[in-house]
Design brief:
The protein has helices spanning 7-17, 29-37; strands at 20-23, 43-47, 65-70, 73-76. With 77 residues, it is of the alpha/beta class. The protein has one domain (7-76). A hairpin with a 2-residue loop joins strand 3 and strand 4 (73-76). It is globular, with a radius of gyration of 13 Å.
Length: 77
C-alpha cells in the first residue's frame, strides 16, 4: 500500500492530474477547493441532494453540474 500523501499534495495532484471531478460530500471545503482550483475547462459534478438548511446551489459555481441519486441511478438535476 502506498504511503499516504499530505493533504496539500492530494489537492495539488487532483487539481493538476484530473480533467473532471465529482464531490459527493457537499459540506467538504477540501472538495470545494479542488473543484474551484481545477482548470476552467474541467467538468465538476456535485451531489445536489442537500439536507434542509445545510447548503444551497448558491454555494457552488454556476458551471458546476448538480447530480442527484434517484432510485439508485445518478441523474442530472
Amino acid at each position: 500500500m502506498p504511503k499516504p500523501m499530505p493533504r496539500a499534495n492530494d489537492l495539488a495532484f487532483a487539481v493538476m492530474a484530473c480533467d473532471s471531478f465529482f464531490t459527493s460530500a457537499q459540506t467538504s471545503t477540501f472538495a470545494w477547493w479542488i473543484g474551484y482550483l481545477m482548470p476552467d475547462d474541467a467538468t465538476i459534478f456535485y451531489n445536489s441532494d442537500f439536507r434542509p438548511g445545510l447548503h444551497t446551489r448558491d454555494n457552488f459555481l454556476p458551471e458546476w453540474i448538480p447530480i442527484k441519486l434517484i432510485n439508485g441511478t445518478m441523474t442530472l438535476d
